[in-house]
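Review form for a predicted model. The reviewer records the input and the model, then writes brief findings.
Reviewer: anonymous (R2)
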Amino acid sequence: MAEKFHRSDARGKVTGRAVYGVDLYAPHMLLGGVVRARIPRGRIRRVDTSAAEAMDGVTVVTAADLPVPAYGMVVNDQPPLASAFIRFASEPVVVVAAPDRETLAAAMGAVVVEADAEAGVFDVEAALGDGSALVHTDYQGYSTVFETHRDGNINGRSVVTAGDVDAAFAEATHVLEGRYVTPRVHQGYIEPRACLATVAPDGSYEVTTSTQNPFGVRGTLAKILGVPESRVRISASTVGGGFGGKLDVTLEHFAALLARKSGRPVKMVSSRAEELASANPRENSVVLIRSAVDAAGRIIGREVTCLLDSGAYAHDTPFIASVATLQATGPYRIDNVRSTALSVYTNTQPTGAYRGPSGPQMVLAVEAHMDEIARHLGEDPVALRRRHFFQPGDVALNGQVITSPSIAECVDRALEAIEYDRPREPGTAVGFACSWWTTTAGPAGATALLEGDGTVSVITGATEIGSGALATGVVHLVAERMGVSPESVRLAATGDTGTGAFDFGAQGSRTTFNVGNAVLEACDLVRAQVFAEAAELLEVGEGDLELIDGTVQVRGLPSVTLQLSAVAQSALNRRGPIHASARYVAPPTEYNPSCVGPHHFYPTFNSPSFHCHAVEVAVDEETGRIEVLRYVAAQDVGKALVPPAVEGQIQGGVLQGLGLALYEEEVLDRGLVRNQSLDTYKLPTAMETPPLECILVENASEDGPHGAKGVGEPPIILPGAAIANAVTRAIGRTTRELPLTPQRVLEHLRAPAESWAASTNQESQYDRAR
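Model under review:
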């Protein structure tokens, strides 16, 4: 039985008292909706809103009402509302607010949008061809937030290079290559995007929203509204899941624009169809890998090109492409590497961050490719990997020194748990995958206050999005440092730009790591104030005191104590309230700048962690159905602050990864998303959850609180690769494309037998694509 642990947000959620974005309400509020394009590409000929505006209580906003023409996270290429040109189906054209649902539906239906359809660009590889049409014909005139490589349909290009790659291939005994494909998948959060916007009496904006990143949303919203950031306050409601899909503005700008024009609060909630057709899902991808192997079976060179489909606008995909480049070798030493990742425009919905951005795509490619190399060499894939594992002091492709890799321990424990060497029936096999991952940095701040009743209140701009990073991780850190029970720690204010210090957002497995360090420093400052006050009251030295069970005690004299409440009340009257604030930014990770090309946004893996997942599957050769029999996840967590909470994150991440591996795919038909409901977009449920064992490997970070590392993202990045390798072994056919649906498995089974011979054609598909 798992040990009990405290989660400060549990009571509100299980009793139904937690207020989610869809629950928001304000007197006299209007309901907002978005009129969207119905074609993937075309020139707008006419927009007529007169009939809608004539309806009682209806407010309409078009592009003519906007103070800025375009915005973006990297490139200012996205108009809040289309005015002249449509670049993807479901692109917003007009927003409407009305006093009730019926009037809103009628008003939206009365808006006329006429456009002349044009031929679109829908394939990420075709978009790079010489004859491809440009998604943005005027891209060279766009301003940028961050300078990025732009060329035709490329809106971001990141490159990392180590050693002499061409020489390695010239010397190689074997050259093997592969092309690996993953689909576009939605983040699968249950609560849709939702917000409520109000214009305050002083003309400032107040928006409550289901967001992971209040300060990031504030910055973008202020830009769209044309006002200083100080005039915008963003507060997070209880978040019903985000997984990266709620990091930037979603509906907040539309609600604020409607509120400004109508003078009334405006609430907006996405439908499920809007979520699937117009949100920012994970990029579909194509990854090309070519490896040079010497006569001793050592990989001496590798080239990788990762193509990420950003959709119609760049959004944050250039950032994600940078992360992809650092995964070209996996947790293996390869001295000569050229890793390139491109963010590419197409006439499809814009994509974006999803838990472990670029991780599943790159780990599938690297780990399936490693298995293919092992088969070609005629050796077990475990042996091949062991020969290449990072060792202490090794240098990664970016010049970053690997100080304490734990990959070998993760592999040993995962394969032992899955009984890797046990003989199995035909059609049943074990596959595994390895990876390394980062703990995202970014500034954080926290304030700790000792209340008069002896509880400790915490204020932070960070957001609890359901992961427990604040509600469990930070709460337990404060409880331990202040000598109180977790029940005596209160998250007094979180996720509000009006009360907490800046936070980089709930993203990249960073919250417990960064906010945890900030709040521990704040607690140390509070402890010093407590000890100074108590030392005078007890007439002892400050160094003789300790905090235990909500009291200040004299060491060695447990009968001489003061309640924390008494200390707080005494200090209030004599010196003022006991409180302190602190901030934290992770120290930079050293790397070799000469290895990293220009316009690279993520050159290092901060406090890296290592992982191995192993899975046993059975494949029905008549139906193509894959049954996942057992799953083992061994993860380097640094330090498991609250083990049941860490295991919960691993379990959830694995299930999402299985969704990508076996079920999920946004079906695109010439730019149109065909499966716009959860009936047709298949998410895994508890019924598809296999027996899952979590193995927590503790390999402490030098910088994390008590040695902790980020834990939320790694579990999702390995299942696709582990499943693909297991299925390949079970059916005797190479699998390089996800999801592995029964139909796709049957196609593999009907294909002719394969040859594992190496490619010796230097003018390969890799070179042609490059």
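Findings: The chain has 19 helices and 28 strands.
Further findings: The chain has a mean pLDDT of 95.
Recommendation: see findings above.
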